[in-house]
Design goal:
This protein is mainly α. Helices cover 81% and strands 0% of the residues.
């Protein structure tokens, strides 16, 4: 069986973090989900090397910020903004750590 690409849980982490924050109303809890997911993805991708894993973490932080900006400054709204950011993170993760 092929291993699930790290891009999938990386993208899902953004969605899950936002969902937890929305459902519970506790934004720090959503942040905790993001941190836990980022740590798990960094561990999964460790064979790609510290530079690539660090790059993915920087992209993830940028996507997190971008989702907030998109939701606030465009007509997209929160969920579509998170979906766009998650797709961008998934693509970047695949390029940086999953592609061989």
């Amino acid at each position: 069986m092929r291993r699930l690409p790290t891009a999938v849980p990386a993208a899902a982490t953004l969605v899950a973090g936002f969902a937890v924050a929305q459902v519970t109303g506790v934004r720090p809890l959503g942040g905790a989900v993001l941190v836990a997911g980022a740590a798990a993805c960094a561990w999964r991708a460790r064979d790609a090397g510290p530079v690539r894993v660090g790059g993915v973490l920087l992209v993830a932080a940028g996507c997190f910020v971008a989702s907030h900006v998109l939701a606030r400054e465009t007509a997209l709204g929160p969920w579509p903004s998170v979906a766009v950011a998650a797709a961008a993170l998934g693509g970047a993760t695949w390029l940086l750590v999953d592609r061989r």
